[in-house]
Structure formats: structure tokens, C-alpha cells
Design goal:
The chain is an alpha/beta fold. It has two domains: 212 residues, Zn peptidases (Aminopeptidase, 3-Layer(aba) Sandwich), CATH 3.40.630.10; 74 residues, N-terminal domain of TfIIb (Single Sheet), CATH 2.20.25.160. The strands form two sheets. It has a nine-stranded mixed sheet. Strands 8-9-10 form a three-stranded antiparallel sheet, with no helix packed on it. Helices cover 27% and strands 23% of the residues. The radius of gyration is 20 Å and the shape is globular. Helix 5 packs across helix 7.
């Protein structure tokens, strides 16, 4: 039977440093985190950006894993080359093939801790359901957004992003570090239970399904001329009703929520998304049945022969 190996990534964005700090301390104290004997590879995603104290050098590493662009990367593009390197080292056909990738991030938005799942792969959903059942974390399904693609975890058979916040970029915070450690240990415990066939998926899971992202108000020159309304700031995960305040302009104009459906906003005023023209994203809260095929897919993945 093939040995299960898990890729653990921190610092995919170089100015998200709490996971990097935890990994550094873990290297100094190998028993800091209980991996239940599972083979793990601890990797700093973007070490050059970390040194520079920046999110990235040439482009967002967490948008650099599209197959077509990875085949045509110029030698001067650090993130493109780094994406290739990580897949060559730890991908399914790599030197140290990993079946599961966990990518630890932080956010400036008031998201608390949550899981981000890209698309609807069975094993991803099964693992996310186990963690939600244990820790109660929200699950954000990111799909149907052609402007946002090429995420790291999509290059592995099973992969999830863990977002923890709020925390400013480049800052260490004891609560963020502790939550990162807690969530990492929960993942290792659940994966261990899958290995031993002693895990119990819940019957249901709560999903926040991505609908669309919206930009800030802008003037005719394309400059931002309004900001997130005080009643909306730090209200991630709170359901919107029609005419709820979204943005405010200094001339007194209020821009409200005009959708008929009660969407749930996430990543409100995320600092890193300003360059992507995203002020917040709308999701739809749904209750999904946990399917038997999800469970079987995760079992098959962990027990590959």
C-alpha cells in the first residue's frame, strides 16, 4: 500500500506570516504538533515574497497553478516557477507524492476561521465535512468564477484552504497562531481516523456557495469613490436583506443591497482583494446531505495501493 503523505503549506502569500511562524517553531520542536504518525511535508509556499514582506513577487502564487500557464512560464516569473517546483516535488507524480494538500492562510476580513473548498471534488467535501463536524467551521465553496482560478490545492487529489482572521498583513498574533495549530491538529486527527476507518461523517453540512464578487463604487476614471458602510464592515457571514447598506460615499450617498435573495457576504474589505477589484463576495447558505460517495472517495484516496 502506498504511504499516505500530506503536504502542509504556509506562506503561499509572503505577508501571511502566522503559519510560517508555527512551522518554524514546529521544526525546532518536532513534537509540537501530533501528526499521528502521518508523513507530512512542511513547506513555505512563497519564500521570496516572505523575505520581501510582500504578498508576492511577480504574480499571486495562489493563482499560478493553471496547467496551461505552468507550461509556458518565463524564467523570470518567480511564482510561475515556484508553482512548477511544488508540483514536481510534491504532486501526484512528484518526487514526494502527496495525496492531500492543506494550505494555511490568514485574512484581514472578519471571517474568523473557515475552510475554502474549490469546486465539488468528493474527497474535499468529505474532509471538510469532518472538520466542520469537529470544529464547527464555516465552509465556503468557491466555484463558477472564471476570474479566480489556478489555486494551489487544486493541483492535488484532495486539498483545502484554511483561512484564519482577522489579522493585518505581516503581523503575528497569538490567537491566530493558536487557531492555526488547533485546526492543523484537527485535520491530522481526522485523516488518521480515516486511515483506521474509525471516522464518522455527519449527515449534513452547511455550505456557503459562491455566487459572485462585487467591486467598490468607482468614479468615471475608475478610482474608488466609496467605502464599505460602517454597518457592513466586519459583518462577514451575516445574511443580507434587500436595501441593507453596502457602501457609503462622502457626498452622503448610500449604495444598498439590491438582490432579491438573502445572500451572505464574505471577505468583506479584504485588503489583498482591492487589487482584484473585489470589495466582498456573495454566497448562498445551503444545507447539503453528506453523500456516501464522498466518504468512499476519501477512503480510497487515503488507502491507495
Amino acid at each position: 500500500m502506498m504511504q499516505l503523505q500530506v503536504l502542509l503549506v504556509a506562506g503561499t502569500h509572503g505577508n501571511e506570516i502566522n503559519g510560517i511562524f508555527l512551522f518554524d517553531q514546529w521544526k525546532k520542536s518536532p513534537f509540537l504538533i501530533n501528526t499521528h504518525g502521518i508523513k507530512t511535508f512542511k513547506v513555505i509556499g512563497n519564500p521570496e515574497a516572505q523575505k520581501a514582506g510582500k504578498r508576492y513577487i511577480h504574480q499571486d502564487l495562489n493563482r499560478s497553478f493553471q496547467e496551461e500557464s505552468m507550461l509556458s512560464i518565463s524564467s523570470s516569473n518567480f511564482e510561475g516557477n515556484r508553482a512548477n517546483e511544488l508540483v514536481n516535488l510534491y504532486g501526484e507524480e512528484g518526487e514526494n507524492p502527496c495525496q492531500i494538500a492543506l494550505d494555511f492562510h490568514t485574512t484581514t476580513a472578519s471571517m474568523g476561521s473557515c475552510l475554502v473548498v474549490y469546486g465539488r471534488r468528493d474527497a474535499d467535501l468529505a474532509l471538510a465535512a469532518l472538520i466542520q463536524n469537529q470544529l464547527g467551521l464555516p465552509i465556503y465553496i468557491h466555484e463558477s468564477d472564471q476570474k479566480q482560478t489556478g489555486f494551489l490545492v487544486e493541483s492535488w487529489p484532495c486539498g483545502l484552504v484554511i483561512e484564519i482572521g482577522p489579522i493585518g498583513q505581516g503581523l503575528l498574533n497569538s490567537r491566530i497562531i493558536s487557531q492555526t495549530k488547533l485546526i492543523l491538529e484537527a485535520f491530522m486527527e481526522q485523516i488518521h481516523q480515516v486511515q483506521n476507518l474509525t471516522f464518522y461523517p455527519p449527515e449534513k453540512l452547511i455550505i456557503h456557495r459562491h455566487i459572485k464578487s462585487i467591486d467598490f463604487p468607482r468614479d468615471e476614471q475608475g478610482n474608488i469613490d466609496g467605502y464599505v458602510h460602517s454597518l457592513r464592515q466586519s459583518k462577514d457571514w451575516q445574511e443580507l436583506k434587500k436595501n441593507d447598506e453596502l457602501f457609503f460615499k462622502l457626498n452622503g450617498e448610500i449604495i444598498g443591497f439590491e438582490e432579491e435573495e438573502p445572500y451572505v457576504p464574505v471577505f468583506i474589505n479584504e485588503a489583498a482583494y482591492v487589487e482584484k477589484n473585489i470589495a466582498m463576495s456573495f454566497t448562498k447558505r445551503e444545507l447539503w446531505d453528506c453523500k456516501k460517495e464522498w466518504k468512499q472517495s476519501l477512503i480510497d484516496l487515503v488507502h491507495q495501493k
